[in-house]
Amino acid sequence: MKLGTLIFKNTYMNFSEMLGVIPPIFLLLGLFDVWVPRETIIRYMGEKSGITGIFLSILLGSAAAGPLYGAFPVAAIMMKKGAGFSNILIFLGAWSTMKIPQVLFEMSSLGTAFAITRWAVDLVGIIVMAVIIEKLISPEERSEIYRKHIEENI
User: Which family does it belong to (predicted)?
Assistant: First the structure.
């Protein structure tokens, strides 16, 4: 009986946490979708955006708040708006490992050298992995991923 009660308490707490995070994310996504033109995303974060797209992806991911499951709807909107595949991967990687509050906590509890070293390793690792993944996936496969995403969300 105690195990069942514990399971229900944990489920309730997790569900409550999600209800506190998901609505604000979807509200911001709706505003992002309406206010930011597709051409702007293509120019600054598209396939040919270069270092600018990488920088913006890292900035958006590291400045974000909320758990990782909040990053996927944002990535979906980025995909819809024409962001480059590697920039979406970099954004997801930055959201998961490079958040500014996390780095500040690490600086205060584990030391500045550790926090900066981990952040730098993550930065390089995320960019390298995104480039490798983009090279491993053919342009046709990437086009198919974008096409399926758009079809499923119409």
Answer: Belongs to the UPF0718 family.
The pLDDT assigned to 1 comes to 65
Residue that the structure tokens 């040919």 belong to: 48
**Bigger pLDDT: 103 or 18?**
103
- CA–CA separation, 75 and 77 (whole Å): 5
The span from the CA of 105 to the CA of 113, in Å, is: 13
Packing angle, helices 51-63 and 100-110, rounded to 10: 70
- Give the position of tokens 């993550």: 122
Cα 3 from Cα 152, distance rounded (Å): 39
Query: Going by C-beta distance under 8 Å and a sequence separation of 6 or more, which residues neighbour residue 134?
Result: 85, 86, 89, 142
Q: What is the DSSP letter of 69?
A: G
Tell me the residue range of the domain where 35 lies. Answer: 2-152
- Give the separation between CA 111 and CA 78, rounded to whole angstroms: 35
> CA-to-CA distance for 68 and 132, rounded, in angstroms?
22
For the question of whether the overall pTM of this predicted structure is more than 0.90, the answer is: no
Task: Give the relative orientation of helices 112-136 and 85-97 as an angle to the nearest 10 degrees.
Answer: 150
Query: How many folded domains does the chain comprise?
Result: 1
